[in-house]
């Protein structure tokens, strides 16, 4: 029996917001799906949700760290704190600069960011650094979405202040054209000029080499004298110190979803109707539901993330649409037709065997299964007709000879037709034309 296709149901069960971190927890139920299809759909939707990158992140920072101990954190801790800041945007793609300007002593958090219009910090209480007294901090932060800085317009991620648009490929192509030139003749002429200049400067280079050798000997002698003097002195030599960096590189987190999980369920509520339906359909044929728990970082609503994930998953699966056309070649069509013809032939043979078997079984049934009138059934039994095989194998002439009339044969034919059998009684056959005696 063909079951009615049920409509897809999406039910929101719970939504909570963490005010400290800005994370949004979202729980919903979706279904029904066919048996064993819930896990497949749930895993595909979960992986698509975790790969969403509809968010902004800080990629680098540039500030005045040359003063020394202006902040209590080192640059690595400052980079990790900047990485944990989540920014919400109403338009994509985006690239821009934020600024933090403070005078110490101060505790700097994410709410001190000076952002452009349309941007909002999701977790304003995220700690960044502590600024010492008598120091000032002027920090520029580069903010971008993952779609930018991947095309022809190159933006230097190390120094966000110097954001210049330049095409590296075009510049590289121009440099190559300047070296080789568009005309090969001019290229060879340039080579000849360079060779002549090289010959003229060969003598000069020899003089320079002699002078350099003299300088090396002087330098070695002086270095030996300095080393001997340092060994006798009590001064301790430390390794060279690196200057404080003004630029901090931040490893951005472009994932919009913090975590995502699901479970497969068969019933969601303890109602009597659902349990009655579960008993009617059986456990193996019961449709499945999915209960999803999605936690976003706050820069995107989980409902919007689910919509984007479904659209992306749908676009991804569209690559499978041309597969039937790809496999619809002449060879594959012939093979499929051959296989289908073999299947049809085997099915016909099987049907013929089943039909012949059922007919043989039906022929051995007793005469009482025809539900004939009592007088007619008793008359046939007195004449020796016990099974359906006796009626089918006897010609019409003999049935007329033993005393059956036209109405009796019509009722027998009608009862045999219910079992798929017949005594070959033609409707157009006239009763008077049937002979009363069998030919010798």
Protein model, in words:
It is elongated and about 145 Å long. β1 (9-17) and β2 (24-33) form a beta hairpin. The model is unreliable at 157-163 and 234-244 (pLDDT under 50). α1 (37-50) crosses α6. It has twelve helices and twelve strands. Among the domains are: 9-53 and 255-321, RNA polymerase, RBP11-like subunit (Gyrase A, domain 2); 57-175, Beta Complex (RNA Polymerase Alpha Subunit, Chain A, domain 2), CATH 2.170.120.12; 364-433, Orthogonal Bundle (DNA polymerase, domain 1), CATH 1.10.150.20. The protein is an alpha+beta fold.
CATH class of the domain at 57-175: Mainly Beta
Tell me the radius of gyration. Answer: 46 Å
CATH H-tier superfamily of the domain at 57-175: DNA-directed RNA polymerase, insert domain
Proportion of helical residues = 40-55%
Overall, the morphology is elongated
State the total count of DSSP E strands.
Answer: 12
Structural class: alpha+beta
What portion of residues belong to β-strands?
Answer: 15-25%
Mean pLDDT: 75
Outline the low-pLDDT stretches: 157-163, 234-244
CATH architectural type of the domain at 57-175: Beta Complex
Order of helices and strands: EEHEHEEEEEEHHEEHEHHHHHHH
Strands in their spatial order, largest beta sheet: 1-2-12-11
Distance between the termini: 56 Å
Can you tell me the CATH topology of the domain at 57-175? RNA Polymerase Alpha Subunit, Chain A, domain 2
H/I helix tally: 12
The largest pleated sheet is described as: 4 strands, antiparallel
């Amino acid at each position: 029996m063909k079951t009615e296709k049920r409509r897809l149901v999406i039910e929101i069960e719970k939504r909570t917001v963490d005010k400290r971190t800005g994370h949004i927890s979202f729980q919903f139920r979706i279904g029904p799906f066919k048996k064993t299809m819930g896990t497949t759909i749930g895993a595909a939707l979960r992986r698509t949700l975790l790969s969403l990158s509809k968010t902004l992140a800080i990629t680098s920072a540039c500030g005045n760290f040359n003063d020394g101990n202006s902040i209590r954190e080192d640059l690595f801790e400052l980079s990790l704190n900047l990485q944990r800041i989540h920014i919400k945007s109403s338009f994509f793609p985006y690239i821009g600069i934020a600024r933090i300007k403070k005078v110490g002593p101060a505790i700097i958090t994410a709410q001190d960011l000076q952002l452009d219009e349309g941007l909002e910090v999701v977790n304003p209480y995220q700690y960044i650094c502590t600024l010492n007294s008598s120091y000032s901090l002027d920090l520029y932060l580069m903010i971008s979405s993952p779609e930018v800085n991947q095309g022809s317009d190159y933006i230097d991620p190390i120094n966000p202040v110097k954001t210049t648009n330049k095409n590296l490929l075009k510049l590289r192509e121009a440099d190559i054209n300047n070296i080789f030139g568009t005309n090969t003749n001019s290229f060879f002429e340039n080579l000849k000029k360079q060779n002549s200049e090289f010959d003229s400067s060969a003598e000069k280079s020899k003089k320079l080499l002699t002078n350099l050798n003299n300088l090396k000997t002087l330098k070695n002698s002086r270095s030996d004298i300095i080393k001997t003097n340092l060994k006798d002195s009590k001064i301790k030599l430390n390794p060279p110190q690196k200057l404080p960096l003004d630029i901090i590189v931040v490893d951005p987190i472009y994932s919009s979803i913090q975590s995502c999980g699901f479970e497969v369920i068969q019933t969601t509520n303890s109602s009597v109707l659902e349990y009655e339906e579960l008993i009617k359909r059986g456990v193996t044929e019961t449709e499945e539901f999915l209960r999803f728990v999605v936690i976003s970082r706050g820069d995107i609503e989980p409902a919007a993330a689910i919509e984007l994930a479904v659209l992306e998953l749908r676009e991804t699966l569209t690559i499978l649409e041309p597969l039937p056309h790809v496999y619809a070649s002449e060879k594959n069509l012939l093979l499929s037709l051959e296989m289908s013809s073999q299947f049809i032939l085997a099915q016909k043979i099987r049907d013929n065997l089943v039909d012949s078997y059922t007919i043989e079984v039906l022929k051995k049934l007793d005469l009482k299964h025809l539900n004939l009138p009592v007088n007619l059934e008793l008359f046939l039994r007195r004449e020796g007709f016990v099974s359906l095989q006796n009626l089918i194998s006897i010609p019409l002439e003999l049935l007329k000879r033993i005393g059956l009339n036209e109405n009796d044969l019509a009722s027998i034919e009608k009862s045999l037709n219910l079992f798929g059998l017949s005594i070959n009684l033609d409707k157009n056959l006239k009763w008077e034309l049937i002979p009363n005696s069998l030919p010798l």
